[in-house]
Request: fold
Amino acid sequence: MASKLIIVESPAKAKTINKIVGKDFKVKATIGHIKDLPKSKLGINIENGFEPTYTTIKGKSKTIKELKEAAEKVKEVYIASDPDREGEMIAWHVASVIDHKKKNGKKIYRVLFNEITRDAVKKAIESPGEIDENKVEAQQARRVLDRLVGYKISPLLWKKVMYGLSAGRVQSVALRLICEREEEIKNFVSEEYWTIDAINEAAQPPTFKSRLIEFKNEKIKIANKEESDRIVDEVGKEKFTVKKITKKERKRYPLPPFITSTLQQEAYRHYGFSAKKTMVIAQQLYEGLDIGEEGTTGLITYMRTDSVRVADEAKRAAREFIKEKYGDKYFPKQSPEYASGKSAQDAHEAIRPTSPAREPEAIAQYLSKDQMKIYSLIWKRFISSQMTPSIIDSTSVDISAGDYLFRANGNVLKFDGFRKVYTEKKDEESSENGNGNDKDVYLPEMREGEEVKLLELIPKQHFTEPPPRYTEATLVKQLEKLGIGRPSTYATIMDTIQNRNYTIKEKKKFVPTDLGILINKLLVKSFPDIINTDFTASMENRLDEIEEGKSDRLIVLNEFYEKFEKDLAAAQKEMEVEEEITEIKCDKCGNMMVKKWGRNGPFLACPAYPECKNTKDFTTDEEGNIKIIDDIETDEICEKCGRKMVVKQGRFGRFLACTGYPECKNTKKIAVENGEVVKKSKSKLLDEKCPKCGKPLAQRSGRYGEFISCSGYPKCRFIKPQETGVKCLKEGCDGNIVQKKSRKGIFYGCDRYPDCDFAIWDKPINKECPECGSHYLLQKKKRKNQPSVIVCPNEECGYEEADSFEEG
Reply:
């Protein structure tokens, strides 16, 4: 019987550790946090030293009971939650519920390991420690700060704008960055400029290109075509003579191994992965996978880190691998050293493979495609970080043409070094004009004083461009640069600003919505000291000081709240949404209508309210022009009474209704795309045949949405089941879950009915739970007239995310 208990957060992690530690240990999982601040109230006693009140998370009572029972049966408990502040908080809560102060002499230890491998786990258990109270204090301070900002400002937004909005200490600063960038783009005035390139030929091949850079020893700027044409005419009459040749040997040093932010950036650049997706995959690699003969093992070190430090043992292993695999010329005499940022926690390590010898190709068969992509990035970046620099022969040739100076640059890769394994991708702003580009560009052999032939002059028009919108990669990079957020928060920030409809993505770039711009404007005006990059960065430093024992949680919170309370009181009185006056006239009283916000988003209202209660729904086109939905002309005639039909807004979206209402209640389904009414056709014949009668199947619209059925209806009543992609959830059944209909509405059941009678009301989603590993999630509507959410079917897990899946 097991005499020791190990407690971790995730079942996947528990599974890996269980295979490592043997029969003396029992391994249990908390499945994330077991306690948190209450959802329905503030949960912080401000007058009593900002004391938080923690409650058991819904669905975790059974987990806590099992942890207590398991702890009762053993002499030693090892809490092995993740090695960060959040993990320390989980450990603290676990220790409190299993009551380590009992008189039975039970010992509770805190164990930390940066990787889930046999050696690391055993070493951690052999030298256990205690819960770090400073780390717990720092995490409590963060939690209290975030709760105060969120639960004090959000209700203010509900009152002033509309219900359901939220503000956050870090998310609102990220939104501010996006809105300020959009303002820069909006105000940017593009300027015309021209470049002139020359195609030259020397005595030796190849031909080469040079660019005009100076006139009479000053940098040249060509403003327009007239000036460009004049210069081309003048230069064409001059002799081209080599004035100066500069040759250099440049070394390009490898980049450090990944930290959380750089992994997220590079995964986006290479594969377009969101920060959240990258972290979910990295978590799987960290927690362990079955890789054949080696069994289940963690493939990478802990993936939430801001330190580039690498353990000496890992360096030695990498260097041995490099020497054996690539040879001495790729093996540096000394291991490269990298400096972490000021705020980095150097107790952590960089993200690296747990074994350099575990090459991606060797374990590819055990990984999914996405796991392979992330593992390959991590492995290649780490191995390359321990290799020799690449060497580039760089040549610069200045060529005079009268008073004008042209320059040709050539780069030749002399030795690939670390590039044999890995080359970083660039963001679009850093790659513009070839910055950092060391591709081979060959120049012919030339000598100073040599005359070169002009083959062609190529003038080209350009326009200065505004700064680009943020992608996930560049936003994470900017947040990190400003010291905003920490490794565990970047993915959440990206998710939140989209789920709240404050931003959308266009061509993978963040664009603030009208709502996002409004919220940012209100918050920055009312809380300039909090929704501020400097404040947010300095607060991260204060939290670090609490963790290091250099500052006190109560002092930090008191300093914050003193100013925050005054700003909050002022905002209660002064925060007002400025009504945007439009060019749309009220068709009832003639006033210019204003844009307002309601539970369904923006709408137009008459400013003469309550005397005039006229409102209009609207959309905007690509230029931002308002189009009134009700004013969109349709040629649809009601087939029941012959009157015209108009567009209406209902609970379930836009629809056509007869103008004869209430005498005629005829309605039709439509869609509104780019401000235009698109009628939904009654049916559309498909190439697929009905399995019952052989007639073509047809796509139709019904009260529950689109469905496919036999075109031979009513003689043939076949309806094709709508697949969910989820296997039947009943043990032993190999059927599939499909959408079905009954008198009570849509439900989901097994396609093997009547052999299998499994059925549920919530729609299953073919996506693995990132917390507990459940192979499916559920689309659930928690409250009437509120958006649905995606939840884990495992009540003990409690995982929840915003619904980004379309209704089927």
Notes: The chain has 18 helices and 41 strands. Residues 429-436, 804-808 have pLDDT under 50 and may be disordered. The two ends are 50 Å apart (CA to CA).
